[in-house]
Specification:
heterodimer; A: about 270 residues; alpha+beta; 6-stranded antiparallel barrel; 5 helices; about 30% strand; B: about 170 residues; mainly alpha; 7 helices
Chain lengths: ~270, ~170
């Protein structure tokens, strides 16, 4: 016993190093698997507060650009609204319950990152704004990511520029769907894999979300096909997508809540139990 | 002793603040960021006990990790360079280190330069290997290590020159 204690005292620096190194390694490994980074994330009081201050100052420098983006979006929405042929029944147009399964919440990006291979964003909406894990996040131009962790006032987003992010997407003109992944190289391009060989893929085609995962509604724009090739087994396409979003410059985002999710998960659970 | 303690606490807070508010968002040429916060580990007083030093390095890395949502990669890299620091000190400063009389402000520039280079490269290599975590992307790891190291080394040397107090 004496010898064991002596050994520990003699090598205490090395043992401490080993202990701390393995703790940080376990944190690292945790962060590589989806939805596991419970302790180490920036959605907490201290880091959220600091980023809030920094972002408040930084936002002044991009006011003009962001105003332009918002005006463009308003313009597009107005043109859709006033050119729609369907009869608008104003008796229920602002009723919240009629035929709505998606609820939108606006948010502001406090921290954006796109240079590492595991990019995570921080926004200023949290549990007190009824934001929870697995809500989708989009901007006016297209898809951004999925909510990962939420604290009271802040949430982190697992960006589409994250090598562990997997989102279902499809071709706009046909219903062939695949998985949206990222290879970690350029923040302007993501990759769509598992599109069957039979699908009519052409450069310039639009890719949208497929709505299969119940996180995003169907038809949210992702990007256009930049180039494509067959994979090693020559059964599926690997498509390089040029994103509509400039992921290096995001400020205002919308968080999508699918109100039907509990119903869908219950149904899936009961049907898988049988 | 008190002023040393005070100076190191201030250095910790200032470097973390600088890193998370400015330097993490530089993204020069798309992905090159300097990690200047390791100056805290480089300039930590040599005559202190190593247990405390390693623990403080871990805390420093973990703080950066929490701010940048990166798991434990900064903590791991910081703990490693804190552990190997005596070896690097001996290598770069030679016998001066043996007598424990070295002061960073008065040390020779060339040995200080070598010391900063070795510490930075080791730190960045561990950092990016853990961040990418993929043997098949080893080229990307080396590429990021090389370019970020150059950036970090230049900034570190500039900061040490600007804030050094020459008593001549």
């Amino acid at each position: 016993m004496q010898q064991i204690i002596n050994f520990i005292i003699r090598n205490k620096t090395f043992l401490l190093f080993l202990l701390l190194f393995s703790i940080s390694l376990s944190f690292t490994i945790q962060s590589h698997s989806y939805h596991k980074s419970k302790f180490i994330n920036s959605a907490n009081f201290l880091t959220g507060g600091v980023y809030n201050y920094v972002s408040n100052a930084n936002r002044y420098f991009s006011l003009k650009k962001q105003n332009e983006i918002l005006t463009q979006e308003n313009n597009r929405l107005k043109s859709v609204l006033y050119n729609s042929k369907t009869k608008k029944d104003f008796s229920y147009i602002d009723s919240l319950t009629f035929n709505h399964s998606y609820k939108f919440t606006p948010g502001i990006v406090l921290k954006n990152s796109y240079s590492s291979t595991k990019n995570v964003l921080l926004i200023n909406k949290g549990v007190s704004d009824s934001i929870k894990q697995d809500f989708g996040v989009i901007s006016s131009k297209g898809i951004i990511g999925i909510i990962d962790n939420s604290s009271k006032h802040y949430s982190t987003i697992l960006s589409i520029l994250n090598t562990s992010s997997k989102i279902s997407a499809q071709l706009e003109k046909t219903n062939h769907f695949g998985t949206l992944t990222w290879n970690g190289v350029s923040p302007y391009f993501t990759q769509l894999v598992d599109i069957p060989k039979i699908a009519p893929v052409e450069v310039g085609d639009t890719i949208v979300t497929s709505g299969r995962s119940s996180i995003f509604p169907k038809g949210i724009p992702v990007g256009t096909i930049h180039d494509f090739k067959l994979d090693v087994a020559e059964n599926y396409y690997e498509i390089n997508i040029k994103l509509f979003n400039d992921m290096t410059n995001i400020e205002y985002v919308y968080i999508i809540e699918n109100i039907d999710v509990p119903e869908i998960t219950n149904l899936l659970k009961s049907s898988s139990n049988e | 002793m008190n002023s040393v303690l005070y100076r190191n606490i201030m250095r910790f807070i200032l470097l973390v603040g600088l890193q998370v508010s400015v330097l993490n968002h530089i993204n020069f040429l798309g992905y090159i960021n300097p990690y200047v916060y390791i100056l805290f580990i480089m300039l930590f007083p040599i005559k202190n006990n190593r247990t405390l030093f390693i623990f403080l390095s871990f805390l420093l890395g973990l703080t950066i990790d929490i701010f940048s949502d990166s798991g434990g990669i900064h903590a791991a890299a910081c703990v490693s360079i804190a552990y190997v620091r005596p070896v690097i000190l001996k290598f770069s400063f030679g016998t001066v280190y043996e007598y424990q009389t070295i002061k960073f402000d008065t040390a020779e520039f060339s040995s200080k330069f070598i010391y900063i280079i070795i510490m930075t490269v080791i730190h960045h290599f561990i950092l990016f290997s853990l961040e990418i975590f993929n043997i098949s992307k080893v080229i990307l790891t080396f590429q990021k290590t090389l370019f970020s190291s150059i950036f970090t080394i230049i900034l570190c040397i500039m900061i040490t020159i600007i804030f050094s107090r020459k008593t001549k």
